[in-house]
């Protein structure tokens, strides 16, 4: 993860309704800033601020499409399956379950084969 964080950080990120909407919309399919601004009824600068924070904590992935003479286009996709909040030893514990791509799943399965049962 590119940014170290604790429960307070993730609470701050998810306190924004727009950030939560972005995560939900981007979980279905990759979406552009324009699509997010329309769906969230928010300005593009607001969307960019939320995207920056979500990508900073790797909750959102960006894919840049290069093509044509115009500017490069970015689309965004949610990078996690779920977030769990638990209370353990009088403190909040946050666990984020990140999506694994096919390569990650293969590596996990392969390394698991070598372990004794």
Can you characterise this structure?
- There is one protein chain.
- The chain has one domain: Winged helix-like DNA-binding domain superfamily/Winged helix DNA-binding domain (Arc Repressor Mutant, subunit A), CATH 1.10.10.
- 45% of the residues lie in helices and 25% in strands.
- The chain has helices at 7-14, 17-28, 33-40, 44-56, 102-113; strands spanning 60-65, 73-78, 80-88, 91-98.
- Strands 1-2 form a two-stranded antiparallel sheet.
- The radius of gyration is 17 Å and the shape is elongated.
- The mean pLDDT is 80.
Strand-helix topology:
Elements: H1 7-14, H2 17-28, H3 33-40, H4 44-56, E1 60-65, E2 73-78, E3 80-88, E4 91-98, H5 102-113
Antiparallel strand pairs: 1-2, 3-4
Helix pairs in contact: 2-4, 3-4
Mean pLDDT, all residues: 80
What would CATH call the architecture? Orthogonal Bundle
Which residues sit in consecutive blocks of at least 5 with pLDDT less than 50?
none
CATH topology: Arc Repressor Mutant, subunit A
Overall tally of domains = 1
Overall 3D shape? elongated
Q: What is the SS-derived class?
A: alpha+beta
């Amino acid at each position: 993860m590119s940014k170290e964080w604790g429960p307070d950080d993730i609470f701050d990120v998810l306190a924004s309704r727009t950030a939560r909407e972005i995560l939900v919309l981007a979980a279905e399919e990759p979406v552009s800033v324009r699509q997010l601004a329309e769906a969230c009824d928010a300005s593009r600068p607001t969307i960019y601020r939320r995207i920056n924070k979500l990508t900073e904590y790797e909750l959102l992935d960006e894919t840049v499409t290069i093509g044509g003479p115009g500017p490069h286009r970015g689309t965004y996709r949610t990078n996690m399956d779920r977030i769990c909040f638990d209370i353990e030893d009088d403190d909040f514990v946050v666990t984020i379950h990140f999506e694994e791509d096919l390569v990650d799943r293969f590596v996990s399965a392969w390394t698991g084969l070598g372990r004794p049962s």
